[in-house]
Automatic annotation (TrEMBL), chain A:
This is ABC-2 family transporter protein. Coiled coil: none annotated. It comes from Halovenus aranensis. GO terms for cellular component: plasma membrane. The keyword Membrane applies. It comes from the Archaea. Residues 162-171 have a biased composition (Acidic residues). Residues 219-229 have a biased composition (Gly residues). Keywords: Membrane, Transmembrane, Transmembrane helix. GO terms for molecular function: ABC-type transporter activity.
UniProtKB/TrEMBL annotation, chain B:
Residues 2-229 form the ABC transporter domain. This is ABC-2 type transport system ATP-binding protein. Pfam families: ABC_tran. It comes from Halovenus aranensis. GO terms for molecular function: ATP binding; ATP hydrolysis activity. Keywords: ATP-binding, Nucleotide-binding, Transport. It comes from the Archaea. The keyword Zinc does not apply. The lineage of its organism: Archaea, Methanobacteriati, Methanobacteriota, Stenosarchaea group, Halobacteria. Belongs to the ABC transporter superfamily. InterPro entries: AAA+_ATPase (IPR003593), ABC_transporter-like_ATP-bd (IPR003439), ABC_transporter_ATP-binding (IPR050763), P-loop_NTPase (IPR027417). CDD domains: ABC_DR_subfamily_A. SUPFAM superfamilies: P-loop containing nucleoside triphosphate hydrolases (SSF52540). SMART domains: AAA. The keyword Ligase does not apply.
Length: 651, 293
């Protein structure tokens, strides 16, 4: 790859497309961007003001309800007495000892709103009381703990806070801030297990602690995201137990979505430019010029990557300014980078598969849904546990909350999508040549084309294998094919890993059945990853026939997978296997502790499994499509049986 | 300058080119003709390095066609060359000149001179707004921005009006006169005949005949003799007061002479007519049609 050529192509890509956009379109885009920027703060704060002045209320200034109504945005005060209600001039009339509401849906809704407003008003008043013990005679410490196994759900501090070891170690149980209840939005909602969550900013408890309990919503609805966080949490500070919410980080989701939104626009433009090279053979002349396909792909991708990152940096900077009042987020920027590459990589491969812009639309929608799920769903559990770290967006949310992020967590979150993006670009680059770019083969055919790309061709002149064969007395083609098959299997591991992580994130809340479902996903995905390229090789007549050759290809694939899956060691860095579902999904790559015999057993057993199942699939692939389907199905069943045995005996 | 040895290209079960061997000397214009699907374009693309041969080797300007360096010495014009229609002609050509590492000043001069020769106006117009002929001229200019030693032109005048076609064929002749080595494919055999030094005829993926026009005519063509007599003989037709009998061998010419003498007449003129490339092509590519015809 030559940087000068790559940059020239990148510059051309920008100017070429710039020529096709008129000033009006640019203007509209800028206005849309400006509007988006204006709306973001309201989205984050949740204060969209949609119900401002929705209900008209007649209330006397001397009434104790006046302040309630006046402080509620949904109400607007109007002149008029009780008759104003009958004349439909107001929805509510609050008189001396009576409240009259219009006999309409709006009137009833206005009355309900008033009840809520009164409750909120009272809570605010109570929080301002000097004697908080009197204001809140019953206090409950609500503590969310990380899941350690299935069914280990959320616990209330009432039955564990006083006895939990961590409380003792911390020494801060009951050091709750009786007077600071209203500021729990500043408490660290995400530090599950930290019972000193209600300390004031100076770290000193400012109220009596041991003789009472304070209702504290730790980790409730978003944690300490400045003033915005407070707006979400303050209403659940006091009230009935039904007001206690599970740790559902609404804000985290909103923030995560803000980062993902631009990606969905970016991939539309990027997919179009890649596909436009393929329509009407437009890209043929670039292929015949003295640049490599990697220069072309790199040059065409660079502007979209740089543009995407620029937008992401702007959004992240904006979020930090809005939420924390200062610039920041270097870790977030680095965390989002693999995600941008993953979107682009998947789109590149998809655009190499699509035969028309109609198909490209289907591809980009699929990518949007899948990758948004991958990035978004785990982030829901930011305040729950390690499972959230599957998504790099979790790092963003956590940095935004001021939490420290360890190197291990960063590596765990970002490596799989980064490697996956590399796999996507690699497979797509294999198709970026004349005979694959411009044909109209089916999606299935193109997938097989992409997979077979790295496998050397028997007897191909001029290639590396041919040169080696010229130097050596033996034909090295089979050896190179075994290496290519094993290497390709290993290269697909990040993709397998990401699918498994996504399955864990999607299924872990389903209870015990999720373990079985994840094991099924694991067996299906891993067996396909080990055998699909072998099948592709046979369909493209890359391999010599014969059962022995097929078995050896299976062995190569099995060994490649075994070595490659050690990437799952990453999971150990952040403790994901502590989850039962995590262990079920990632068992192949996790090395248990001693003794040595056990270690060997756990090393060799997965190796044997992968070699045997890949061998079964390879033998099927060497015969026919139907035989391959039967063989890979058998391999999946063997794999599932093995996984179930391991889980039953170990978990 | 070009050497192809046993080139073979398979697409799955389909063999597009089979055992194609030929060479082209420096400064030579080599034509490849054949019916649709004969393997001409596949052969040209293998020479240009766009397609990897399944078997066999090809070298252009001393480089294997798989080498990137080879492309610096090559100007390739595909049969269809859709351009980046959002670009102007000059920006498009400058971009490709950059890719070929042509210095800006040299590129500017070369582009201007070539466009002048091709009489292309409206150079700052977007390519999407240009006519097909204008686009073809831009594509030809692009194939020359790097001043290549070898030109591979696949149907350079395909689908153009006669005027533009003539213009492009004349321009190709000028390039040949400048000493460029040209491999040229065309459906219009008159054009091939007029500018090619040697021709290969392809059919069903194989080269079925090759050589210069004389060689091809001798090997695969026919010579027709028009024998004019003063008297009517068998199979003759009256023409300008004489009788013309058309025969295909010297023995038949002698037979005609005998017939005329027997009828108290004589042979007054014999004219020879060689097969055109088109007829040679039809003989080679589809011998059945000739015999049936």
């Amino acid at each position: 790859m030559r940087p000068r050529k790559l940059l020239r192509i990148a510059r051309w890509e920008v100017t070429k497309n710039a020529g096709g956009i008129d000033r009006r379109t640019v203007g509209i885009a800028l206005v849309a961007l400006a509007l988006f920027g204006l709306v973001v703060p309201f989205i984050i704060s949740g204060d969209t003001g949609l119900d401002d002045g929705l209900y008209r209320v007649s209330v006397d200034e001397e009434s104790p309800y006046y302040d309630v109504v006046d402080s509620e945005g949904a109400f607007v005060i109007r002149e008029g007495g009780e008759r104003a209600v009958s004349r439909s001039e107001v929805e509510l009339y609050i008189g001396d000892g009576e409240i009259v509401y219009a006999e309409s849906r709006k009137g009833i809704a206005a009355y309900g709103q008033l009840q809520s407003a009164v409750s909120r008003y009272n809570n605010r008043q109570l929080r301002q009381e000097l004697n908080q013990t009197a204001a809140f005679p019953v206090s409950v410490v609500l503590e969310y703990r990380q899941q350690s196994a299935l069914g280990d759900g959320l616990r209330l501090g009432g039955d564990s806070g006083g006895t939990d070891d961590s409380d003792d170690e911390d020494g801060s149980t009951g050091q709750t801030d009786g007077s600071d209840g209203g500021e729990s939005g500043e408490s660290d909602g995400s530090e599950a297990g930290d019972t000193s969550t209600d300390q004031p900013d100076d770290g000193e408890p400012d109220g009596p602690a041991t003789d009472r309990e304070t209702t504290t919503d730790t980790g409730g609805s978003g944690g300490p995201i400045g003033g915005f966080g407070a707006s979400f949490t303050e209403d659940s500070i006091s009230g009935s137990p039904s007001d206690i919410n599970p740790p559902f980080p609404f804000q985290s989701l909103v923030l995560a979505f803000l980062v993902i939104i631009p990606m969905n626009f970016l991939i539309q433009a990027y997919g179009s430019t890649i596909l436009s090279e393929r329509t009407n053979r437009r890209g043929e002349l670039l292929l015949v010029s003295p640049v490599s396909r990697f220069d072309i792909i790199g040059g065409k991708t660079l502007p979209y990557f740089v543009g995407g990152m620029a937008v992401e940096v702007a959004i992240i900077a904006g979020l930090f300014v809005l939420v924390n009042g200062q610039l920041g987020g270097p870790v977030s920027v680095l965390a989002v980078m693999p995600l941008v590459l993953l979107f682009l990589g998947a789109t590149f491969l998809g655009a190499m598969f699509a035969r028309s812009f109609k198909e490209l639309t289907f591809v980009t929608v699929t990518i949007t849904v899948t990758l948004t799920s991958y990035a978004f769903v785990p982030a829901i559990f930011t305040d729950v546990g390690a499972v959230a770290l599957i998504s790099p967006l979790t790092l963003l949310v956590r940095e935004l909350q001021g939490e420290a992020i360890s190197l291990a967590e960063f590596v765990f979150s970002t490596t799989p999508p980064l490697l996956c993006a590399g796999v996507f670009f690699g497979l797509g680059a294999g198709l970026y040549r004349e005979e694959d770019m411009f044909d109209q083969r089916s999606l299935r055919g193109r997938v097989l084309d992409a997979l077979v790309g790295p496998i050397p061709v028997r007897g191909k002149p001029g290639g590396f294998t041919a040169r080696l064969n010229g130097l050596l007395p033996v034909d090295v083609t089979p050896l190179r094919q075994y290496l290519a098959v094993g290497g390709l299997t290993a290269a697909l591991i990040p993709f397998v890993f990401v699918v498994q992580l996504l399955a864990i994130a999607l299924l872990f809340a389903l209870g015990e059945i999720s373990v079985v479902l994840i094991l099924v996903v694991v067996a299906v995905v891993e067996e396909l990853a080990k055998s699909l390229h072998i099948y592709a090789g046979y369909t493209h007549r890359r391999f010599a026939s014969g059962r022995r050759r097929a078995v050896l290809l299976g062995v190569a694939s099995g060994v490649g997978f075994f070595l490659g899956e050690k990437i799952a060691l990453l999971a150990q860095l952040v403790g994901l296997p502590d989850l039962a579902v995590g262990e079920a999904g990632l068992q192949g790559g996790i090395i248990p502790g001693p003794p040595v015999l056990t270690v060997l057993l756990f090393l060799l057993a997965p190796l044997a499994l992968h070699v045997v199942t890949a061998g079964i699939s390879a033998v099927g692939a060497s015969r026919s499509k139907r035989a391959y389907v039967v063989a890979v199905g058998t391999a999946m069943l063997v794999h599932l049986a093995y996984n179930l045995t391991v889980v039953v005996s170990v978990v | 300058m070009i050497a192809a040895q046993d080139l073979r290209k398979e697409y799955g079960e389909f063999v597009a080119v089979e055992g194609s061997t030929f060479s082209v000397e420096e400064g030579e214009v080599f034509g490849i003709v054949g019916p649709n699907g004969a393997g001409k374009t596949t052969t040209l693309k293998m020479l240009a390095g766009l397609l990897d041969p399944t078997a066999g080797t090809a070298q252009v300007a001393g480089y294997d066609t798989s080498e990137t360096e080879m492309r610096k010495h090559l100007g390739f014009l595909p049969e269809e060359s859709p351009l980046y229609e959002e670009m102007t002609a000059t920006s498009y050509l400058r971009f490709f000149a950059d890719l070929y590492d042509v210095p800006d000043g040299v590129a500017e001069t070369r582009i201007t001179e070539t466009l002048d020769k091709l009489d292309l106006e409206h150079r700052e117009r977007q390519l999407g707004d240009m006519s097909k002929g204008m686009k073809r001229k831009v594509a030809i200019t692009r194939s020359l921005v790097n001043d290549p030693d070898v030109l591979i032109y696949d149907e350079p005048a395909s689908g153009l009006d006669p005027l533009t076609t003539n213009y492009i064929i004349q321009f190709t002749e000028e390039l040949a006169a400048e000493g460029k080595t040209i491999v040229f494919s065309a459906h219009n055999l008159f054009h091939v005949e007029s500018i090619c030094d040697r021709v290969a005829i392809m059919n069903d993926g194989e080269i079925v005949a090759r050589g210069d026009l004389d060689e091809l005519q001798q090997a695969h063509g026919e010579t027709t003799y028009h024998v004019y007599t003063t008297v009517e003989v068998a199979d003759s037709v009256r023409e300008n007061g004489r009788y013309r009998r058309t025969v295909e061998s010297m023995s038949e010419v002698e037979e005609t002479r005998t017939l005329a003498q027997e009828a108290d007449g004589e042979v007054v003129d014999i004219r020879t007519e060689e097969s055109s490339l088109e007829e040679v092509f039809l003989n080679v590519a589809d011998p059945g049609s000739r015999s049936e015809g």
